[in-house]
Design a protein that fits this description.
- The structure is a single chain.
- A two-stranded antiparallel sheet has the order 1-2.
- It has one domain: Non-ribosomal Peptide Synthetase Peptidyl Carrier Protein, Chain A.
- The N and C termini lie far apart (54 Å).
- The protein is of the alpha+beta class and 131 residues long.
- Helix 3 packs antiparallel against helix 4 and helix 4 packs antiparallel against helix 6.
- The longest helix has 18 residues.
- 44% of the residues lie in helices and 15% in strands.
C-alpha cells in the first residue's frame, strides 16, 4: 500500500499490534519477590497454546481460500482497527474503511497462498486479592 501511494512511510511506522506471548516465568516475575504484586497473588496459572480451529477446518476441507478468509476476517475485527489508528487521521481518516478492506483482502490472499497453522499462545490466571 506504500508502493501505490495509499499509505505513507510515517503512517506505517506508527502501526503496531501491542501484544506479546509470555512464558510462565514472565507472568510470575512481578510476584516473585514478595509473593504478591499490586495487592494480588497468583492462585492458579496455566500457559498453553489454544487450538487453531480455522486450521482444523482446513484439514477437513482443504479450502485454502476459506482459511485465509476466516483468519483475515478475525484479524479485521480484532487487530486491524489498532493498525488503522496509525493513519494520519486515525479512525476518522477518509481512507479508514478502504484500508480495512484492502488489508483484509491482502491478508486473506497471502494466507491462502501458503496455508499453515497459527500458534495461539494464551494464559489462564486466577488472582486473589491480598489484605
Amino acid at each position: 500500500m506504500v508502493r501505490d501511494g495509499f499509505l505513507r512511510d510515517e503512517e506505517v511506522h506508527r502501526m503496531a499490534i501491542p501484544t506479546v506471548g509470555r512464558t510462565r516465568a514472565e507472568f510470575a516475575a512481578p510476584f516473585e519477590s514478595e509473593g504478591y504484586f499490586a495487592g494480588l497473588s497468583i492462585e492458579q496459572m496455566e500457559v498453553f497454546d489454544a487450538e487453531d480451529s480455522i486450521w482444523t477446518t482446513y484439514l477437513d476441507t482443504a479450502d485454502a481460500r476459506l482459511l485465509g478468509g476466516r483468519w483475515a476476517a478475525f484479524s479485521r475485527a480484532s487487530v486491524f482497527p489498532t493498525l488503522a489508528a496509525g493513519l494520519e487521521g486515525g479512525r476518522e481518516d477518509a481512507r479508514y474503511p478502504l484500508f480495512l478492506d484492502r488489508l483484509e483482502a491482502d491478508v486473506a490472499a497471502r494466507l491462502a497462498s501458503s496455508p499453515a497453522p497459527m500458534r495461539i499462545p494464551l494464559a489462564r490466571m486466577l488472582f486473589a486479592k491480598q489484605g
